[in-house]
Structures are given as structure tokens and as C-alpha cells.
Amino acid sequence: MKLSKVALSVMCALSIQSQAHATDLMAVYHAAQGQDAVFASARAAQQAGQEKLSQGRSLLMPSINLNANTTYNDVTTTYGTTSAFLASGTKKYNSNGYGVSLVQPLFREQNWAAYNESELQVAMSEAQFKLAEQDVILRSAQAYFDVLIAQDTVQLTAAQKTAIAQQLEQAKRNFEVGTATITDTYEAQARYDLILAQELVAANNLEVKRRSLQQMTNGDVGDLNVLGKAFTLENPQPADAQKWVADAQQGNYQVVLAQAALQMSEQEVARNRGGHLPTLDLVANYANNSASGGSFGATDTQSKSVGLQFNMPLFQGGATQSKWREADANREKATQDLESARRSVELQTRQAYLGVVSGIAQVQALQQALKSSESLLQASKLGQEVGVRTSLDVLNAQQQMYSTRRDLYQAEYNYLISHLRLKAAVGSLAEADLSRVNQALH
User: Fold this and answer.
1) Do residues 194 and 202 make contact, with C-beta atoms less than 8 angstroms apart?
2) What is the rounded distance in angstroms from the CA atom of residue 401 to the CA atom of residue 64?
3) How far apart are CA 359 and CA 363, in angstroms?
4) What is the pLDDT of residues 287-346, one digit of tens each?
5) Which pTM does this prediction carry?
6) Is residue 77 part of a domain?
7) Domain count within the chain
8) Is the same domain home to 399 and 303?
């Protein structure tokens, strides 16, 4: 028996809460699919949007109504003159009836426009859901890497604190034996006090980032897999920013939504223009009425009718013309919104493309900078031992090395996120893309 995607996502979220080993990016994503309230809201909105088509189609279909009534009558009749055929008096009786009416629209321009709008509303709900699917991928990855960089910062801060503590102890010993001044001790103590404050900030930031991730998955994710040796740098394919922009103009769901909104505004103009046009309906009625008494005794009446009903609007106080002008202005607004969406998507696509390309260069530069910082630290320690470098030089070299390492981690995460954002910009971001990023984690 096959399980639904939601059921699988819920099971994944429950497994995250109980597992002892590290959690990977795909597990977080699947948990977010089933537990994230934002995505659940988008799924419900998509299901609601599907109903618009049935509602629009109903305007073209016949409508059938059944009515029934029962009435107690108490009638007193008094005639001014006596007659053998007309007798004054009081009559009490029941009258009952039922009827069926059918109306089939034959010509209603507004209904056809509303039906076309319903098709566009369904298309818009689908595009909005596709956007939500891409958004949950991006938010899962962003929240995941936010936790990783926060963890890295905590670990690097702790390592830096240990190194500064060693420098502080060494400065104190050197001062006691007279090989260094009290200034070295003060410098090391100041750095140590500062790193203690930074350690608290890093710990708080890690807690906030983990809570943000838990908000999406509705559970504790435990330890996370980190970047491993499988991490590689790859240029966008094709390596042409303009080609990516052209694809984004066609496939980006923000542009698709704006295009559907423009088409819908055009249908709204047509619908309001239909307010000037006549309507023609096929009308059929059947009625059965009976009365147990009355002036002429008990009666039982049946009536049947079939005909055409024509209606021509002549004047509605200017409301029809006003709605037409309003719809025309909204069409102009939708046109400008589409142009704005295209420009925004072009900018987003270029930013994501440059994020990947420049991210590669930045990671490579920081990798080299880290090697240089490590060499500088070793040289500074050696120089301090032989008396050509001070404790401050060593502290500065330590800070530079740890800062470079943190910047390198951040650059690697930004590079991976930029890859996903570039795919989202052209509307092709899917679970397989996230799976490739997950392969770089261990």
C-alpha cells in the first residue's frame, strides 16, 4: 500500500525527533514538507484554487430550483347583496403547492468571461504552489546552513578562546620571570575577556538558528551533517548569464503569476463590458397547487411553461461604466506589475548567477588565505619564541586565522545556496537539486 507524500513527511519528522545519528539536509527538507505551517498553508490554498474551475463552469450550466409551500387559510367573506350563488361566511382550509423551475443561460457574456477567469485562477493557484515548493526547498537549505555556520562560529570561538588562554598563561609566566612586560599580560587578558563575550553571543545565535530550524520541522533535528570532502566547486551550466536570464523570463513562477494576472485583468474588462449586453435564458417551470376549500370549493391546479427570457440593461446609475473603467485601470496596473516582475526576476537571476561564479572565486581565495593565515600564525609563534614578535602579534595572527576560517565556511554555504537560488530563478528547482547538495554533506 502506497503512503502519501504528507504521510511520509510526517514519518520523517517523527524519525528526526528520535534518531541519535546526524541528520542530513534531505531529512530536514522532507520533515519541512509535512510540518512547515507556511507550506501547509500553500497546499491548502492550492486545493482551494482548484475549486474555482467548477464554480466558473457552473455559470454556464442550467440551474434547477424546487419550491414548496403549505398555507392555512382563514377567510371571512361578506357580500352586500344576497345571492343564491354567493353566500357570505367563513371558510377555513389548507392550500399546498410545489414547483420546479429551470433556467439555462443561452447568451451571457459575463458568465463566459467569469469562466475564463476561473481557468486563470486555477493556473495561478498552481503557479503559487510551485513557488511554495521551491520556497520550502530554499528555506530548508538556508535554515540548515544557518545552523551549520552558527555551529562553526561556536566551535571556532571555543578554539580561539583556548588559544588566547594559552597566550595569557604564557604572558603571565614570562612577566613573572622578567622576560616580558605587563603590557603583554594586559593585551592577552583583554582579548580573553572579549572572546568570552563573543562566545556567549555565538551560543545564543546557535540556539536561535536551531529554534528556527525546529519551527520548520516541528521537532528537534539533533546533530547535522557538515560539509565533507565531497564538496566541489562547479560553474553554472551553461556559463552564460544572459541565457539564464532568458530562461528565467519564460520559466520563473513570479513571471508566470504576473502574466496570468494580466490575462485575468483582461477577462475582467470583458466581463464588465458584458454589463451593457443583453442576456437570453431558456426558462421552464412546472407548478402544482391544491386547496381543500375556498370560494369555489376544493381545487387542484397544474401549470407548465417553457419559454425564452430576454433582458436588456438600460441604466444602472452609472455603475456599469464605472466598473468598466475600474477594470481597465486594473489592467494597466497588471501590465506594469508584469514588467516589474520581469525586471525583478532578471536582477534576481543575475545576482544568483554572480553568487555562484563569484562564490567559486571567493572560496578559492579564502582557501589560500587560510593557508597563509596558518603560516603567519606559526611564524608569529616562532618569532615570539626568539624575541622578534610580541604577544600582540601572535594574538592578531590567531584572530586573523579564525576569522578567515569562519569566512571560508560562510562562503562555502553561500555558494551552495546561490546554486539553488539560480535554479529557482529559472523555475527548475526540484528535490533532485537539493539531493546533489546533500551529497556534499557527511
Assistant:
1) no
2) 80
3) 6
4) 998 888 766 677 888 999 999 999 998 887 888 889 889 999 999 999 999 999 999 999
5) 0.82
6) yes
7) 2
8) no
